[in-house]
């Protein structure tokens, strides 16, 4: 307990923030970092594409005529960037994101139920006003359950709907994904820390009749619908021959409808976890900001990949991810 508390205290004292603010700041900082890397073409082309998109980019670059003044005449900065870009891990490491997600959900369930050391180390570093204005125990349990379902489903899809591939991704993508799933598992309950601290779990907490409200009757169907759409998209993409243009109805107006579904999943949790009198849970909303920016950039890269491989008609009239907006 003392060691965990010291680690949390040292991290928060350096930022001069409580645990909720630090968590929100992490998501926003990570989102801004990804966005800043994606803007300059010199960084975007090196670090953003992965999977088939990276393979395509590499092929295009390989087909370009070799400049007489290539690697030796390149500046030290260019050589350094090129070297860092080679630090990649197998794309199959994506599965580890959902292993981490599921294990994190189970870990925090144990911590919340028995007020474990890790939970107390974080919960006692939340400002008192936030502890008093906390989400209910029903909201905590529902959001935890939805996050576990999301992690289990995505883990199942990674294990059963993935094909052998030699593609790789930049190691920072991998680290960012691990960090996200570790922290989002905390984000879904941290604004209910005050409730959990003062609450003794009973059988009534497992009664579905006490959990349903207008908010849950809207958010849970959205979560289920978005999960079903995403699973259907993943199953369809798995059934395609390699590098075939998707023709599924969900792809008729969107380049990446499975990314749209991912955003809807986290939006439903953000609304479901909103404290009384508020529309959304700001901590989960900050996590959603990271998801939207990260997937939005990948959707843009996917659009360009489709254009290069299948021509302009393949993406004409389609939004990348968010209908009407983007």
From TrEMBL:
This is Polyprenal reductase. PANTHER family: DFG10 PROTEIN (PTHR14624), POLYPRENOL REDUCTASE (PTHR14624:SF0). Belongs to the steroid 5-alpha reductase family. Polyprenal reductase subfamily. It holds the Pfam family Steroid_dh. Plays a key role in early steps of protein N-linked glycosylation by being involved in the conversion of polyprenol into dolichol. Acts as a polyprenal reductase that mediates the reduction of polyprenal into dolichal in a NADP-dependent mechanism. Dolichols are required for the synthesis of dolichol-linked monosaccharides and the oligosaccharide precursor used for N-glycosylation. Its EC number is 1.3.1.94. Keywords: Endoplasmic reticulum, Membrane, NADP, Oxidoreductase, Transmembrane, Transmembrane helix. It comes from the Eukaryota. It is a multi-pass membrane protein. InterPro entries: 3-oxo-5_a-steroid_4-DH_C, Dfg10/SRD5A3. Pathway: Protein modification; protein glycosylation. Coiled coil: none annotated. The chain crosses the membrane at residues 22-43, 97-119, 131-149, 170-190, 210-229, 250-273, 279-299. Residues 214-326 form the 3-oxo-5-alpha-steroid 4-dehydrogenase C-terminal domain. It is found in: Endomembrane system; Endoplasmic reticulum membrane. It catalyses: a di-trans,poly-cis-dolichal + NADP(+) = a di-trans,poly-cis-polyprenal + NADPH + H(+).
């Amino acid at each position: 307990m003392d060691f965990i508390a010291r680690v949390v205290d040292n991290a928060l004292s350096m930022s001069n923030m409580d645990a909720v603010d630090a968590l929100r700041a992490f998501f926003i900082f990570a989102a801004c970092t990804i966005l800043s890397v994606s803007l300059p073409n010199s960084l975007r082309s090196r670090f953003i594409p992965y999977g088939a998109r990276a393979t395509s980019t590499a092929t295009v670059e390989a087909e370009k005529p070799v400049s007489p003044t290539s690697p030796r005449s390149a500046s030290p900065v260019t050589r350094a960037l090129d070297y860092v870009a080679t630090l990649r891990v197998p794309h199959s490491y994506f599965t580890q994101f959902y292993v981490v997600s599921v294990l994190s959900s189970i870990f925090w369930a144990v911590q919340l139920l028995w007020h474990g050391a890790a939970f107390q180390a974080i919960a006692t570093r939340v400002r008192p006003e936030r502890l008093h204005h906390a989400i209910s125990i029903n909201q905590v349990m529902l959001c935890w359950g939805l996050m576990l379902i999301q992690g289990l489903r995505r883990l199942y899809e990674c294990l059963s709907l993935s094909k052998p591939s030699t593609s790789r991704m930049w190691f920072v993508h991998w680290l960012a994904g691990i960090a996200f799933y570790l922290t989002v598992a905390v984000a879904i309950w941290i604004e209910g820390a005050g409730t959990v601290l003062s609450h003794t779990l009973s059988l009534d907490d497992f009664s579905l009749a006490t959990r349903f409200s207008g908010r849950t009757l809207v958010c849970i169907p959205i979560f289920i619908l978005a999960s079903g759409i995403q699973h259907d998209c993943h199953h369809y993409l798995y059934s395609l021959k390699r590098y075939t243009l998707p023709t599924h109805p969900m792809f008729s107006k969107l380049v990446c409808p499975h990314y749209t579904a991912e955003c809807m999943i986290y939006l439903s949790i953000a609304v479901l976890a909103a404290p009384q009198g508020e529309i959304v849970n700001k901590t989960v909303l900050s996590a959603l900001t990271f998801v939207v920016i990260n997937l939005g950039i990948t959707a843009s890269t996917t659009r360009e990949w489709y254009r290069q491989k299948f021509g302009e008609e393949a993406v004409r009239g389609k939004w990348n991810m968010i209908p009407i907006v983007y």
